[in-house]
Amino acid sequence: MDALELLHSRVSSARLTGSVDDVQLENILKAAMRAPDHAQLKPFRFLKIAGNARETLGSLFARARLTADPSISSGDLEKTKVKPLRAPLILVAVARIVEHPKVPEIEQLLATGAAVQNILLAAYAQGLGAIWRTGSMAYNQIVNEGLDLAPDERVVGFVYLGEVEGNARKPNQLPVQDFVRDWTGR
Ligand SMILES: Cc1cc2nc3c(=O)[nH]c(=O)nc-3n(C[C@H](O)[C@H](O)[C@H](O)COP(=O)(O)O)c2cc1C
Q1: Per-residue pLDDT reduced to its tens digit, 64-82
Q2: Ligand 1 pocket, CB under 6 A
Q3: What is the reported pTM?
Q4: What confidence tens digit (pLDDT) does each residue in 128-152 have?
Q5: Between 105-125 and 22-33, two packed helices, what is the crossing angle to 10 degrees?
Q6: Packing angle between helix 74-81 and helix 53-68, nearest 10 degrees?
Q7: Looking at the domain that runs over 3-7+15-50+86-165, which CATH code has it been given?
Q8: Domain boundaries, the chain
Q9: How many A from CA of 85 to the centre of ligand 1?
Q10: Position in ligand 1 atom list of the atom nearest CA 138
Q11: Cα(48)–Cα(54) distance, integer angstroms
């Protein structure tokens, strides 16, 4: 696929199945490494969660939800538990925030976000589907501890990856002129 066609047509896919092979994953991670990154801090790392580990993640999510809301219904708890089973592979994008004289925290988070976007694009380029998810589980202390994150690390996203189930969505083509204005000074 032509690079511009790829950039103009990428969509997220929520319904994912099948598998992601080692070559596809390597290509995805190589794309992540090409994220723009002020001062080359490489603030990002990724946890690969597949197979039975997805169930372990689901149990961790359920424990975190139950702690946050002890009155949660068993139905909602079960829904939380099966969330990681929505794709064969999840990459947890983690940002490690360091003190830096020129690179504030926001730039380290943005660099990690750019790495996530490259992951989405590399998945799409290979005919795979992907979706960037967060939700309350991305900002939960129990989840962070269960994922063995250090105190200076933050979850930037759970990237669900797999083969697209059914037909891919059509991209919503927005009129770019609505998002840009000339600025010529005062
Ligand atoms: C930081 C971030 C967090 C997101 N979290 C969620 C989420 O938890 N659940 C969800 O359904 N979509 C989430 N989204 C939106 C989807 O990833 C996706 O962008 C959206 O469904 C629009 O689809 P598109 O990428 O095809 O335009 C998130 C997007 C971003 C950038």
Answers
A1: 999 999 999 999 999 999 9
A2: 11-12, 131-135, 157
A3: 0.97
A4: 999 999 999 999 999 999 999 999 9
A5: 140
A6: 140
A7: 3.40.109.10
A8: 3-7+15-50+86-165
A9: 17
A10: 8
A11: 10
